[in-house]
């Protein structure tokens, strides 16, 4: 007979509460790990999906994600002429607050170069991609917008023509795709007073200031995305573009590296530290539970020894109970995670390898806890039944 | 005394060193118990009765002396207690003042456990457990947890458990102390029956003078020794 199972079923409420407690701890570990994965995935979403080989950004800057970047509005035409370049697209991205249904909303406006960019790199959940006409937008569902909704950005009203899912920036704000020219207009939004003051300043004899730049300072184009010919020599194209001096060229790999190891480094470190702490707390709690359960059974263990039970019977009793708690806690944690995490404001990505590693960590914790319990049980002597 | 001794102890001593000096809990006790014999051990508290049961039950090593079971020397001062588990499992049944049933097992499971520990198939173990409960008029309580049984019923289940492996030696330590006179008498009669019908050697440590008529022999302990001239019957 399975003594561990018998003992467990003897006090089902206690087992259920213990399992629930462990499940919540494991769920927190799954959540922290998933949050980390979600943040990394969100941050790399555009970089990985937009299908660019090279990013041409403002010179001596690490734009457009890790640093601000502005390139000349006609930079795409200059880049297009370089041998080895297959096609180019202009790109910009910035945060935008707007009002919808009487409530303030946030979105990250992403200017894409329609019609050159046909949106093949993202999947629409609903509606259609941007057509050639102005004042259309494709929104992520996380913005709370739906197809045919109309929103005001700067001085214009945009119609939502398509919806994406799970397309957010590194801060978790949903992406709002508009044509690059519309994006430039939205970014240039100014008050009437600002315009008057700018005009007044512009009448100052047309003097060239000391920090005059080849890049128009009101340019809202952050980067030019380049796809190379399959036969092109990447290093040669980069060298050609860098020789211009006013741009910096980065590969997709460099953009990924900048995003993960510069912009998100502290956040990643903090999340991983918290994950480690929760895992440690889980280990301590599980160990205490298994050890306490062993202490409560010392009399039974002494009786088993008195009856001549082999040590393996005692080892199985403790080991199986630790395993039972671990397996039930883990299974419940995964179920709860699937049910609860979709309602979290940030995406929690549960990857099978992460779940497997957490299961392995829990298995190790349970094994160590059971070993501690077994070590205590091995000190019990049969004669203790009489005490 | 009839038949070969099932239990034979020779010059058994157990001494403890304490702050106040050496305590001689048991001091040179020799005793034989034969198959089919019901022996009562009487004596005041601290006389060495329980220490004797510990040593005879292979739960503790003697300081000196030997314990023999069916002609085999099994315990002595240097014996490995852990290796004596198998002998306990196969050859000794224990009954205590408290029934000491496992709380999360039913009556029949408590009995079957002893058999399963000896590698008997679960179905056979349960069937034998029910037979034993039937013999003790308890089969109707077979599936009840110990908490649902009365003190007398629990003690009878404990007796059934001790009998499960048909051990040649039953050791009982104050088995009737927690029972009223009627139930105490019932339990002692069961021991009498076990010794008579199963041929087991039964050694009962007790304070209870109400069932002395059932014993084949009564041994008195005092100050860790068998009182000379007080071995009755």
UniProtKB/TrEMBL annotation, chain A:
This is ABC transport system permease protein. The lineage of its organism: Bacteria, Pseudomonadati, Pseudomonadota, Alphaproteobacteria, Hyphomicrobiales. Keywords: Cell membrane, Membrane, Transmembrane, Transmembrane helix, Transport. It is a multi-pass membrane protein. The chain crosses the membrane at residues 15-36, 269-292, 322-344, 356-374. Its main location: membrane. InterPro entries: ABC-4/HrtB_transporter, ABC3_permease_C, MacB_PCD. PANTHER family: ABC TRANSPORTER, MEMBRANE PROTEIN (PTHR43738), HEMIN TRANSPORT SYSTEM PERMEASE PROTEIN HRTB-RELATED (PTHR43738:SF1). It comes from the Bacteria. Residues 273-379 form the ABC3 transporter permease C-terminal domain. Residues 16-242 form the MacB-like periplasmic core domain. It is found in: Cell membrane.
Automatic annotation (TrEMBL), chain B:
GO terms for molecular function: ATP binding. It comes from the Bacteria. The keyword Transmembrane helix does not apply. Belongs to the ABC transporter superfamily. SUPFAM superfamilies: P-loop containing nucleoside triphosphate hydrolases. Residues 7-231 form the ABC transporter domain. It comes from Ancylobacter amanitiformis. Keywords: ATP-binding, Nucleotide-binding, Transport. This is ABC transport system ATP-binding protein. Transmembrane segments: none annotated. The keyword DNA-binding does not apply. InterPro entries: AAA+_ATPase, ABC_transporter-like_ATP-bd, ABC_transporter-like_CS, ABC_transpr_LolD-like, MacB-like_ATP-bd, P-loop_NTPase.
């Amino acid at each position: 007979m399975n003594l561990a199972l018998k003992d467990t079923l003897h006090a089902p409420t206690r087992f259920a509460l213990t399992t629930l407690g462990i499940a919540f701890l494991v769920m927190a570990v799954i959540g922290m790990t998933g949050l980390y994965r979600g943040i990394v995935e969100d941050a790399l979403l555009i970089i990985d999906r937009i299908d660019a080989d090279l990013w041409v950004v403002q010179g001596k800057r690490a734009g457009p994600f890790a640093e601000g970047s502005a390139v000349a509005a006609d930079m795409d035409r200059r880049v297009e002429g370089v041998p080895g370049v297959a096609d180019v697209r202009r790109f910009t991205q910035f945060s935008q607050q707007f009002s919808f249904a009487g409530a303030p909303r946030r979105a990250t406006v992403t200017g894409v170069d329609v019609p050159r960019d046909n949106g093949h790199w993202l999947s629409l959940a609903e509606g259609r991609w941007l057509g050639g006409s102005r004042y259309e937008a494709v929104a992520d569902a996380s913005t709370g917008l739906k197809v045919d909704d109309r929103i005001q950005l700067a001085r214009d009203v945009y119609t939502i023509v398509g919806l994406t899912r799970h397309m957010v920036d590194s801060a978790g704000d949903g992406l709002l795709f508009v044509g690059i020219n519309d994006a430039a207009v939205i970014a240039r939004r100014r008050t009437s007073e600002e315009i008057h003051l700018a005009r007044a300043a512009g009448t100052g004899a047309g003097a060239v200031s000391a920090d005059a730049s080849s890049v128009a300072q009101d340019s809202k184009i952050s980067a030019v995305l380049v796809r190379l010919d399959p036969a092109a020599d990447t290093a040669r194209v980069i060298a050609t573009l860098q020789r211009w001096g006013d741009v910096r060229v980065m590969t997709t790999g460099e953009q990924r590296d900048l995003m993960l190891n510069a912009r998100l480094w502290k956040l990643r470190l903090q999340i991983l530290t918290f994950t480690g702490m929760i895992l440690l707390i889980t280990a301590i709690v599980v160990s205490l539970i298994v050890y306490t359960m062993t202490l409560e059974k010392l009399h039974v263990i002494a009786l088993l020894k008195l009856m001549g039970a082999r040590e393996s019977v005692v080892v199985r009793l403790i080991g199986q109970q630790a395993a039972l708690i671990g397996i039930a806690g883990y299974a419940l944690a995964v179920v709860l995670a699937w049910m609860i995490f979709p309602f979290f404001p940030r995406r929690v990505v549960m990857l099978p390898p992460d779940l497997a590693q957490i299961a392995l960590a829990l298995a190790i914790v349970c094994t160590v806890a059971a070993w501690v319990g077994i070590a205590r049980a091995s000190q019990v002597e049969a004669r203790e039944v009489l005490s | 005394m009839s038949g070969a001794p099932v239990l034979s102890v020779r010059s058994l001593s157990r001494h403890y060193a304490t702050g106040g000096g050496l305590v001689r809990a048991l001091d040179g006790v020799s005793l034989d118990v034969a198959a089919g014999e019901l022996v009562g051990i009487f004596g005041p508290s601290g006389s060495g009765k329980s220490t004797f049961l510990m040593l005879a039950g292979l739960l503790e090593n003697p300081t000196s002396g030997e314990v023999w079971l069916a002609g085999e020397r099994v315990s002595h001062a240097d014996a490995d207690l852990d290796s004596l588990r198998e002998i306990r499992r196969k050859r000794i049944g224990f009954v205590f003042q408290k029934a000491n049933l496992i709380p999360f097992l039913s009556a029949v499971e408590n009995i079957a456990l002893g058999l399963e520990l000896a590698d008997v198939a679960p179905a056979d173990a349960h069937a034998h457990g029910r037979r034993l409960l039937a013999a003790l008029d308890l089969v109707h309580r077979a599936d009840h947890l110990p908490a649902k049984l009365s003190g007398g019923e629990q003690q009878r289940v404990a007796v059934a458990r001790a009998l499960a492996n048909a051990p040649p030696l039953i050791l009982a330590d104050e088995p009737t102390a927690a029972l009223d006179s009627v139930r105490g008498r019932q339990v002692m009669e069961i021991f009498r029956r076990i010794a008579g019908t199963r041929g087991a050697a039964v050694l009962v440590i007790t304070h209870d003078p109400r069932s002395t008529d059932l014993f084949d022999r009564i041994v008195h302990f005092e100050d860790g020794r068998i009182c000379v001239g007080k071995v009755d019957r």
